[in-house]
């Protein structure tokens, strides 16, 4: 079967990676969570004190240090899911916490950061057979992807899902903080100058507010089948 490129974009915490991961497993495709890459750069910036007190980024310093940031993914043999490595260290847990979530959008708005990460993402997908999720995959990273999905759900629903997830993992979680963070990231992501979050003209939209994970997986598989080249 001919392999294709599948781009899944949408708002924060709406279930993109859940859907993307499941489809990639089913098809035997590579799965790439591009949000994890922006989160890893953010963790690096936090560890190197590259944020000013007002939350803005010390861009000049970060630019100098960009060549020292090496991100890769490695499958966890026990779960079959990819884990994110920053300069050889597994940072999967660290990048999912609130501190990184609260600092990631300003990092992701910086043109030289996007340029570097987009180039890596394009290299990862050049053989096709990839499901990649993020904010600009269908518009910027793979504008020629055969299948593009744009996922939405209400902010309340998304915050509740993230809250439940953090609680289940035993991580600190406050619903109001999470809702505020989801709304702030949506705002910054949709209003930044470079590659703002928006639906590609040829993307198929899914509001999964009322769908179960199984239902959205089924929906996505049907989309895949109907977008296979003839
Ligand atoms: N249809 C659904 N119903 C209920 N929970 C869901 C559904 N889809 C995903 N979830 C849960 O919502 C949470 C967020 O999902 P996920 O991490 O896939 O979102 P995301 O869009 O990739 O988020 P981010 O933008 O932060 O990368 C997870 O705990 C996931 O299990
Ligand atoms: N292609 C992408 C992916 C992510 N971002 C930014 O990273 C943040 C974290 O992403 P999650 O998917 O893990 O929520 C997100 O809020 C965006 O600011 C991006 O810009 N482009």
From TrEMBL:
GO terms for cellular component: cytosol. It catalyses: dCMP + ATP = dCDP + ADP; CMP + ATP = CDP + ADP. This is Cytidylate kinase. GO terms for biological process: nucleobase-containing small molecule interconversion; pyrimidine nucleotide metabolic process. GO terms for molecular function: ATP binding; dCMP kinase activity. It is found in: Cytoplasm. Keywords: ATP-binding, Cytoplasm, Kinase, Nucleotide-binding, Transferase. Pfam families: Cytidylate_kin (PF02224). The keyword Kinase applies. PANTHER family: CYTIDYLATE KINASE, CYTIDYLATE KINASE/PANTOATE-BETA-ALANINE LIGASE. Residues 6-215 form the Cytidylate kinase domain. It is an enzyme of class 2 (transferase). InterPro entries: Cytidylate_kin, Cytidylate_kinase_dom, P-loop_NTPase. Its EC number is 2.7.4.25. Belongs to the cytidylate kinase family. Type 1 subfamily. It comes from Hallella mizrahii. ATP binds at residues 10-18.
